[in-house]
Amino acid sequence: MSETRESRLKRMAMRSWRRGTKEMDLILGPYADARLAALGGEALELYDGLLLENDQDIYPWITGAAPVPDRFRALIAEITAFARSRHHA
Question: Measured between alpha carbons, how far is residue 51 from residues 8, 88, 89 in Å?
Fold first, then answer.
């Protein structure tokens, strides 16, 4: 049985808030709350793939301390801009 969209969004939101590091919880959790429901199929697939990555890899991508893999470049740029806009609001 395949996962419904609603179940998938709930799973992804929970995974965004419960990363393992507080820094990533505070970056991905609010992003997921604000943006997940509006994402289309391909964007959801990409974000789901990002959730499989380690926080120790994602955090340096977001802070600019490490190069972002090509497939995540646009998504990481969007998440980074979202996090900065929340921080400076």
Answer: 12, 25, 26
Predicted model pTM: 0.92
Q: Name the residue ranges covered by the structural domains of the chain.
A: 5-87
Residues 12/60, Cβ–Cβ less than 8 Å: no
- The Cα–Cα gap between 66 and 36 comes to 25
SS3 89: coil
- DSSP designation for 52: T
Tokens of 33: 């709350």
Question: Tokens 């609010």 correspond to what residue?
Answer: 30
Span 18-52, pLDDT tens digits = 999 999 999 999 999 999 999 999 999 999 999 99
**Domain 5-87 part of CATH 1.10.10.10:** no
What SS3 state is found at 77? helix
CA–CA dist 4, 65 (Å, integer):
36
